[in-house]
Amino acid sequence: MGLTNSSVGIKAVDSGLVIQKQSPDDRVVALAGNPNVGKSTVFNGLTGMNQHTGNWPGKTVTNAQGCCSTKSHAYVMVDIPGTYSLMAHSAEEEVARNFICFGDPDAVVVVCDATCLERNLNLVLQTIEISPRVVVCVNLMDEAKRKNIKINLELLSTRLGVPVVGTTARKKKSLRILMDSLDQVCSGPAQRAPFAVRYADAIEASIAQLEPLVKEKCGGKLNSRWLSLKLLDQDESLIREINAYLGERFLQDNTLQNAIAQAKTILMDRGIENEDQLKDLTVSALVQSAETICQGAITYEDRQYAAADRKLDKILTSKLTGYPVMIALLALVFWLTITGANYPSQLLSNGLFWIQDRLTEFFAYIHAPAWLHGVLVLGVYRVLAWVVSVMLPPMAIFFPLFTLLEDAGYLPRIAYNLDKPFKRCCACGKQALCMCMGFGCNAAGIIGCRIIDSPRERLLAILTNNFVPCNGRFPTLIAILTMFFVGTSGGAFSSLLSALLLTGIIVLGVAITLVVTKVLSKTLLKGMPSSFTLELPPYRKPQIGKVIVRSIFDRTLFVLGRAICVAAPAGLVIWLMANISVGGISVLNHCASFLDPFARLMGLDGVILIAFVLGFPANEIVIPIIIMAYMAQGSILELDSLVEMRNLFLQNGWTWITAVSTMLFSLNHWPCSTTLLTIKKETGSWKWTAIAAAIPTAVGVAVCILFTTITRVFA
């Protein structure tokens, strides 16, 4: 098995996916499964790709495609979003259902969790109703063994009528038997008839009434029994897909319409009067069938295998201890980030600015004009060097720590704890997961909002994600906290106090998120909170090596690359503004003077406000711009110590009120350019992008003015 390149694009009909084939003879395989069963890990093991995996439900929010091959066939594996059922209730579940039903895959691999297999069989039974070309992959067999759960795979295969294989996806060797079974399924017709769910007598009678005509009309394109059941249900989104797949004439056929009406009459005569009753009976039959299939095939030597998880959950999700533990863990992560980032950040800064000195010598050697050296070295390069040295070390520490919590299964517990506060704000508890991702990078948090099913609630999460500070704002917050409220002597106590105060600011940001969400849900985005299924996954031992590599390459370098792309032109603009003078005063200082009266109302000054404006491409450069403007220099500067920086700020009129106001505005102001571009991509609307910038800015201005006014009254 190995990764191959794709060259031929073939559209999967009505599935919303474009399947990339290397050859028209390649077999397309849908990789389906409940959320959090290791589906993406199976995908990575088969294809050699590096799609992000995580121990929380709803992680796969887009479709990934990769290639693998055996001696018999070449395959295109499509990792579709996790779904509990093919009775779709969200956009992601619709994508999964549509691809299985109408994307014409050559086979479907349904990945199941070995520790809760009976529940996962619900999806398996629905899938084999649609297609007999199914392989059931019982994943996480190692966890089942650890919990003393024994599974008779052969017996399950006999009862289901399709191949059932056991795997531990983290061990690639265990996937070979899966590919062998896939070869058998794709090489010819099914050897056995798949298990057929037996529904209530009334439903079976209605299907029998309708199926012969459906089979004739659909021409074998879809399973006639499954299609007959779905025509009785009349799910609107599914009917649209059936129309697109079979053509509108199919459902407009008068003979078929009369047959559907007669079948519904049979249901009504036997007491099934509405679609909800039909769905309840359908689900009940699936659950009972899964229970029957598992009897004798799954044995539990220890019925208390999950007792340790439940005991831990009593602490982590309790009303009494859940929130303190969350705050303590957050403070610990910040303390480790602050303490660990100082030394490598200084080393990186020294190295990059050493390169700057060599570049300066090179420009002098070639007798380059001063303006060219200023633009390229003191402008573009110096800003890039500052952004990299300040941003990279904290991200390289924060993202792995965050991913370790994710891998261990703690993030869904945070969503569980915050579900009620968000519900009171008419939002979705899953917003907590997106909010956590925003601590590393708000752009990543915006992308993470895809896991929220409701478009209204997804938009709420997008518009409020910026109220939690990202890594780019940490340097400003930490520097001001240390200079004015902790002390500049350093040491373990200083970093611990900085982490605690920073955690307090984060908690304030979360509180503002809830308030703004509540206001938006009562005004601009009215609506009631939707219900959702939040599965608490089992606690798992994180794969530390993979976590570090994945965090650095998938998150840290990705975010850093985006920041560099926007920081380079920003460096050019800042240098030009600082070096072009009008009336003996630089354009930068002219702009600062213009903004000064309004900035004073907020407890700031014009220099601080223009620094935030010019920091739009990357928040990391706010403090360097302030230093540059105060010292009347033509390029971004870095002072050697926080003591020097504090003295400079005090000389320019800073007080504790200025410090607090600056932190409040850093917490609440427009998103950076990278985040706004991501918002535009996710919403597809410049209107919502503008609103996403206006809301935190308005809140920041209002909070700063309110704080300054109150402190001046009581001063």
Brief overview:
The chain is built from 29 helices and 12 strands.
Describe this structure in words.
- The structure is a single chain.
- The protein is α/β, with parallel strands linked by helices.
- The chain folds into 3 domains: 8-186, Rossmann fold (3-Layer(aba) Sandwich), CATH 3.40.50.300; 201-271; 322-714, no CATH class.
- Helices cover 63% and strands 8% of the residues.
- The protein has a 6-stranded mixed beta sheet with strand order 4-5-3-6-7-9, with helices on both faces.
- A hairpin with a 2-residue loop joins β11 and β12 (585-586).
- α14 (322-365) runs antiparallel to α15 and α24 crosses α25.
Helix/strand layout:
Elements: E1 8-12, E2 17-21, E3 27-33, H1 39-47, E4 64-69, E5 74-79, H2 91-102, E6 107-113, H3 117-130, E7 134-139, H4 141-146, E8 149-151, H5 153-160, E9 164-166, H6 176-186, H7 201-218, H8 224-233, H9 236-246, H10 248-252, H11 254-269, H12 275-294, E10 298-300, H13 307-316, H14 322-365, H15 370-408, H16 411-424, H17 431-440, H18 442-448, H19 455-464, H20 474-486, H21 492-522, H22 544-579, E11 581-582, E12 585-586, H23 587-601, H24 606-614, H25 622-630, H26 642-651, H27 656-667, H28 673-683, H29 686-714
Parallel strand pairs: 3-5, 3-6, 6-7, 7-9
Antiparallel strand pairs: 1-2, 4-5, 8-10, 11-12
